[in-house]
Design brief:
This protein is α/β, with parallel strands linked by helices. The chain contains 14 helices and twelve strands.
């Protein structure tokens, strides 16, 4: 096969990380469901919890190729991926600098679990590079960012943060879930560790739970040494389904991104939508930065309803767009972040980062834009 660096993204999605069917020459990867493998006279001692069964091993190659890294690991969820990553690089007495605009589950994990391990942490006051630099301590070992962030789509300057970190010998990690490797390649801007909730765009069909971390061989080995003890691997049936789903990742995300741009512009003009958060809009405060570090603005956006509309009733009135907990499926979905992704935060914490009760997070699918507009219109007009 040609060098991965020369392959187009859709070719990588389709072919890299396939398990070759040497026996029957099938067009798709065979599924290896065995949980027990030979250990005598073999080069690799395979075991599901070691992340090296055939389907796990080869899918990791696809993810690494997409992110432009040497290696990757897949996990049972996005939270499994990020928690294993944190625990691999942080120990008692270490300090983490973490972005303040962040997925609520990550925030809750840090606040609930880090004190048990004696790991220190500081949330930034903002998401500019200086906000990170201001809170670095002598024992800071890792800086974690999320861009675009969930759910306000804030954009952090990846290169500026990584340059600050490298000047002080600090590792950097990023949650790249919202962008996906189709729209953003953080490794190109100096990031050390890239994680995903693979439940989202990698899966893309709202039918599996998975997570991933991509990095250098050295960093992946360090994570593996922790993860094989914690046991966060996926079943090979789910791994096979994820590899199948990722074959259309490029096609899906590009179609969803195109739809999101059209809808963001339309919502931004709607008289009963008070604000739209989408980096593709010129009115977005970090539009130029997003344009510089993203190849597409993504398929996630959020908007705030006029105070005359009840956000929960609005969602119940929708007929085509689903009110659903997760995101990034081929079907369009909405949620209220204050009731879901950020429900574990206090009202004060949500207010401090701008998550109001009127905020709706919109995961744009592949449907016809005219149909999505019509659904939103009828929901608003029903009040």
């Amino acid at each position: 096969m040609m060098s991965k660096k020369k392959l187009g993204v859709n070719t990588i999605c389709t072919h890299v990380g396939e398990v070759k069917d040497e026996q029957f020459k099938g067009a798709v990867s065979p599924m290896y469901l065995s949980s027990s493998y030979e250990f005598l006279d073999v080069d690799i001692k395979r075991y599901p919890r070691y992340f090296n069964t055939p389907n796990q091993e080869f899918l990791s190659k696809k993810i690494a190729a997409l992110e432009g890294t040497e290696g990757a690991l897949i996990f049972s969820s996005g939270m499994a991926a990020i928690s294993h990553m944190f625990l691999a690089f942080l120990q008692k007495g270490d300090h983490l600098v973490v972005q303040n605009t962040l997925y609520g589950g990550t925030v809750n994990f840090i606040k609930e679990e880090f004190p048990k391990y004696g790991i220190e942490y500081t949330f930034t006051n903002g998401y500019k590079a200086k906000d990170f630099e201001d809170v670095i301590q002598s024992n800071t070992k890792l800086i974690h960012i999320e861009t675009p962030s969930n759910p306000l789509l804030t954009i952090t300057d990846i290169r500026d943060v990584t340059q600050i970190a490298k000047s002080k010998g600090i590792l950097t990690s990023i949650d790249n879930t919202f962008a996906s490797p189709i729209n953003q390649k953080p490794i190109e801007f100096g990031v050390d560790l890239v994680m995903h909730s693979a439940t989202k765009y990698f899966g893309g069909h709202s039918d599996l739970s998975a997570g991933a971390v991509a990095s250098s061989h050295q960093n992946i080995e360090r994570i593996w040494n922790v993860s094989k003890n914690l046991g966060g691997n996926l079943s090979d049936m789910t791994v096979w389904l994820l590899e199948r789903s990722m074959k259309t990742l490029g096609l899906r995300v590009k179609a969803q991104t195109k739809n999101a741009m059209k809808l963001a512009k339309w919502l931004n003009r709607h008289p009963q939508i008070s604000k739209v958060h989408y980096p593709g809009l010129k009115s977005h405060p970090e539009h130029k930065l997003a344009k510089a570090q993203m190849t597409g603005f993504g398929a996630m956006l959020s908007f705030e309803l006029d105070k005359s509309l009840d956000s929960e009733k609005f969602q119940k009135k929708l007929k085509l767009i689903k009110s659903s907990m997760s995101l990034a499926g081929v079907e369009s979905t909405v949620i209220s972040p204050h009731l879901t992704s950020h429900a574990l935060l206090t009202q004060y914490e949500r207010d401090s980062v701008g998550i109001s009760d009127q905020l709706i997070r919109f995961s744009v699918g592949i449907e016809a834009v005219k149909d999505l507009k019509a659904d939103i219109i009828q929901a608003i007009e029903s009040f």
